[in-house]
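> forwarded from #structure-qc
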């Protein structure tokens, strides 16, 4: 039998069903090993992000191939794999322009674990095109971080060019902020500050041993005021990566950008939220405000990145990631809501 956690009309419950089988020649059945809880899942559960009314959540997962369809090539039973949950039609105007993440029928509109059954399940049936082999140097536990890093890699690419001597601010040190900090350190950035309200999260960020400054945002507010009074136009940051999704944090951080600075809006803000921006400041400083949306073309890069970063940067304990059995999903969600952990991962 197959055990899963299913969302039905806003409520989660454990269900037991027969083990699924491939039903089309281009499908693959994966026995899930590890499946993460993403911030998007929390937004779905809070009614802040759209999803299917009845669906098994989980779009960050890795496992072992259990069955393959008759037309599947290059994937065999027993292979260790990770899933890119996003597909595209390849034919619409966005796909034809090289923007598959805006696909009119794919992208975030058909994501596995949001619109189709995902990885909070012992078995998950997916299209072969979404399945990627996991190199032997990566454990399946680490492979559960490939999907988040595929999104972060897209954001990092959008920030380029950005000299490694740049002053960078990361707003928020939840799991995404911690993964961003690890990535920047891996790429040689040393002048990085992390801004975080919660003391426990600041402690996690300090424990990464990157040497980065970790501050309460009020410290930066006061530093900015002092720099303004002193007429110090050099104070501030060359780039800000917002991982909070909080409009107030974005509005404040834009004011901390130096001339030529870049603001990357990476966190998922509530729909119809708003911020105030002084357009004269955008003009006078030549500021760039950049959005980052899922993971077009970056999944192979993320696999290589996790392979290269795994030993030094991707220790679950240092990142504050806790592992739960699937039936203990409520304990996982409660620990996340209390900020006792940065991320929950289900081990199946």
């Amino acid at each position: 039998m197959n055990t899963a956690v299913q969302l039905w009309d806003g409520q989660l419950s454990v269900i037991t069903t027969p083990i699924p089988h491939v039903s089309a020649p281009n499908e693959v059945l994966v026995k899930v090993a590890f499946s993460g809880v993403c911030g998007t899942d929390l937004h779905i559960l809070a009614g802040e992000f759209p999803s299917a009314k009845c669906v098994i959540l989980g779009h960050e997962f890795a496992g072992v191939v259990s069955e393959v369809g008759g037309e599947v090539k290059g994937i065999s039973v027993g292979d260790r794999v990770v899933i890119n949950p996003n597909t595209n039609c390849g034919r619409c105007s966005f796909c034809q322009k090289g923007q598959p993440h805006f696909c009119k029928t794919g992208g975030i509109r058909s994501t596995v674990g949001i619109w189709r059954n995902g990885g909070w399940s012992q078995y998950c049936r997916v299209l072969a095109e979404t399945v990627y082999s996991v190199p032997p140097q990566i454990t399946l536990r680490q492979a559960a971080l490939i999907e988040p890093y595929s999104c972060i890699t897209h954001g990092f690419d959008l920030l380029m060019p950005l000299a490694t001597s740049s002053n960078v601010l990361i707003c928020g040190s939840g799991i995404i902020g911690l993964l961003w900090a690890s990535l920047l350190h891996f790429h040689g950035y040393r002048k990085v500050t992390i801004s975080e309200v919660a003391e426990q999260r600041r402690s996690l960020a300090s424990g990464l041993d990157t040497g980065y400054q970790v501050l309460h945002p009020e410290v930066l507010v006061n530093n900015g005021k002092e720099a303004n009074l002193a007429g110090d136009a050099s104070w501030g940051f060359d780039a800000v990566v917002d991982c909070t999704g909080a409009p107030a944090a974005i509005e404040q951080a834009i004011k901390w950008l130096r001339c030529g600075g870049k603001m990357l809006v990476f966190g998922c803000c509530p729909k119809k939220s708003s911020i105030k921006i002084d357009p004269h400041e955008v003009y006078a400083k030549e500021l760039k405000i950049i959005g980052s949306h899922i993971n077009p073309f970056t999944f192979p890069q993320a696999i290589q990145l996790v392979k290269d970063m795994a030993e030094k940067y991707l220790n679950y304990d240092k990142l504050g990631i806790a592992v739960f059995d699937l039936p203990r999903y409520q304990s996982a969600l409660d620990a996340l809501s209390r900020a006792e952990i940065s991320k929950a991962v289900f081990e199946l």
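QC bot note: The radius of gyration is 21 Å. The longest strand covers residues 27-36.
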